[in-house]
Amino acid sequence: MRSKFRIVVVVFLSSFQPLHGQQVPTLAKEVQKYVRVQAKRVVLEHVRIIDGTGRAAVDDQNLVIEGGKVSAIQAGADAPAGEGVTVLNLRGYTVMPGIVGMHNHLFYIARPNLDSQWHDEQPLLVPQMTFSAPRLYLACGVTTIRTTGSVETYSDLNLKHEIDAGHLLGPHLDVTGPYLEGSDSYFIQMHHLSGPDEARQFVDYWADRGVTSFKAYMNITRAELKAAIEAAHKRNIKVTGHLCSVTYKEAAELGIDDLEHGFFVNTQLDPDKKPDVCSEGEGTPTLQRMAPESAEAKDLFDTLIKHHVAITSTLPVFESGGVFEADGVHPRPPLRQQVLDTMSPQGIRGSGRFVDCRAGSDREWRRGRWLWRPARNRIAGRGGFLTRRGHQDRDPEWRDLPWPAGSDRHDCGGKECRPGGGERGSVDGY
Questions:
Q1: N or C: which end of the chain has fewer CB within 10 A?
Q2: In this structure, what CATH number is given to the domain that contains residue 29?
Q3: What domain range includes position 32?
Q4: What is the pTM of this model?
Q5: Of all helices (H) and strands (E), which one includes residue 48?
C-alpha cells in the first residue's frame, strides 16, 4: 500500500502542469476520476523529500503546492486546513519530482504464433499501446516521456494533444518521429529510406507535423544519417540512434546527439563489420573485445566527448535478462506477486522462458555488459554527457546535462531510475 500511494503522490505533483505559463486545462470526467486532489492549495505534511538534485533526502518536511507548482518546502508541522486548502498527512511517505523518461515507447513487440519452443511466424510486429502505455508510465511516476521512435506517429501526436488538453490520461509526451531506417529492417511497420534526399524530406515532413526528436535505426547508411542530422539540426531538433550499420565513432563524427542502449550496440570491432551494413553480432563482439581501459575505448570516449554526444544507458532493458552470481553480476530479481497478478497465464509462462533462455545462452555477452558499466563514469568524469532529466519541467526540447564526476548513482531522470522504474510500462529495448 505504501509504495502504491507514493506513486500517486508523484503523479499528483507533476501531472497536468501548465506548459510555460499556460492555464491548467479543464479535465474531462474520465480524467478527473484519477485525480485525488484539485484544491488551489495543497499541503503534503511530514514527508521525506528527494529533490532530484543529488542532495541527500530530507525527512519531516511540509511541501506546499499552489496553482499546480511547488511554492514552498518548510519544516514539518501540522498544517491547518481551510477554504481552498487540502492537507494530506503523509508521515512515513516519500515525495520526489516526476520522472522524465528518456527512452519510452508506446508499443510492444509481438511474435505471431509464438509457441512453447520459441517458434513463431513472420512478420515481427509492434502493436500500438495508445490506451495502456500512457497509464502505465504515469502509474510508475513517469510524468514526461520521450517516445524514442514511433510506429503510429499520428496516433502519438494526437495523443499528446489530447493529454495536453486534459481529455485523456497520461504523461507529457515529447514525440519522436518514425524510425530513420535503411533499406532493410526487422520490422515491417518501419519505412525504408531510399537515400539521403528522402532522409531530408522525411525529417522535414515530420518536423512540420510536430515531432520533437528523431531516432536512427539499425540499417541506416552513413549518408542517410548525415542528411537526417543536418536537416534536423537546421530546425534545432536532435537525433539519437539505436545503431548497428553505423558505428558509434562514425555517428559521433557525423553529428549525432545521443546514442541509445549504452555501449551495447556499438559494432566498431565486430569482425564481419562492413561499411553501412549491420554486422551479424550487432555489437556483441565489440562489447567483448573493447575493454573500457583499452586504447580503442579511450579513442571512442575522446570522440564522444569532443562531439558532445550523450549516452542513454537503458539498463533495465538489459537487466530483464537473467544473470548469475557466478558471473559477478547481480541476479535478476524475481517478479513480485503484485506483478504476476496483473499478467495473463501466457505472459507468466513467457517471462519464465525468457529468463531461462537468456541465462543459459549468452554468458560472454552478459559478462562484457557488466565490465562496461564503469565506462559511464569514465565518460562523465572527463566531462562527457549522460542523459539525465530529474525535473518535471515541460520544455519540449530534451537536453543533455553533465553527469557529476565520479557519480555511481542511478539516473532518476530516465531509464535507470531507482526507485520508480524509468520504463516499467514498456517491455522492449528498441
A1: N
A2: 2.30.40
A3: 2-97
A4: 0.79
A5: strand 41-49
